[in-house]
């Protein structure tokens, strides 16, 4: 059986390298590539891959939010998150959002291959030194956490929040999402209200704390 794969990373050289490595596996078929989060969502719908190999730091919706949106679909592909970050917050958010695997970029190629195969079989995979016991502990902690206002944001509001956090102005967001400038402004006001924020600086601090924006990989 051939496994169809969509590669998502904003670094062309890395995507090409991954393609060459994964295509050496006889049962892997790379059916498409994407360089930003919005493009990933479009290609998931048009290409219907079985697996998405997704960079956590991809722009225009980061990998964690893209994972959540993909996994909301009724018949969604397995998501293998590829990241340089081993911080608990990133791993927890990826698992919470529905990722089947979390693979560290500093690992071996065979880890990614194994993660893809296990994801297709419905088995969760994490690169060493991440462990299943640790992830279960994080998930348990998550259940005990208090109400999170971020969870009240709609999908569109999250998209706009991510784009604002990346430095896009309202007119750029309007063009990117194909919505009116007034609609962007309305969503922005709702975001600020729901999150209890009063300034752009507070919004940027919130985005940094949530891992929405981070040092580029």
CATH topology descriptor of the largest domain: Rossmann fold
CATH homologous superfamily title of the largest domain: Response regulator
Calculate the mean pLDDT score and round it.
Answer: 88
The low-confidence runs, each spanning 5 or more residues with pLDDT under 50, are none
CATH architecture of the largest domain: 3-Layer(aba) Sandwich
Structural classification: alpha/beta
Share in helix: 40-55%
Tell me what the structure shows:
The chain is an alpha/beta fold and 217 residues long. The protein has two domains: 142 residues, Response regulator (Rossmann fold, 3-Layer(aba) Sandwich), CATH 3.40.50.2300; 62 residues, Orthogonal Bundle (Arc Repressor Mutant, subunit A), CATH 1.10.10.10. It has ten helices and six strands, in the order E-H-E-H-E-H-E-H-E-H-E-H-H-H-H-H. It has a six-stranded parallel beta sheet with strand order 2-1-3-4-5-6, sandwiched between helices. Strand 3, helix 3 and strand 4 form a beta-alpha-beta unit. Helix 4 packs across helix 6, helix 7 packs across helix 9 and helix 8 packs across helix 9. The longest helix is centred in the C-terminal third of the chain and has 15 residues. The model has no long low-confidence stretch (mean pLDDT 88).
Describe the structure using short key phrases.
single chain; 217 residues; alpha/beta; Rossmann fold; Arc Repressor Mutant, subunit A; 2 domains; 6-stranded parallel sheet; 10 helices
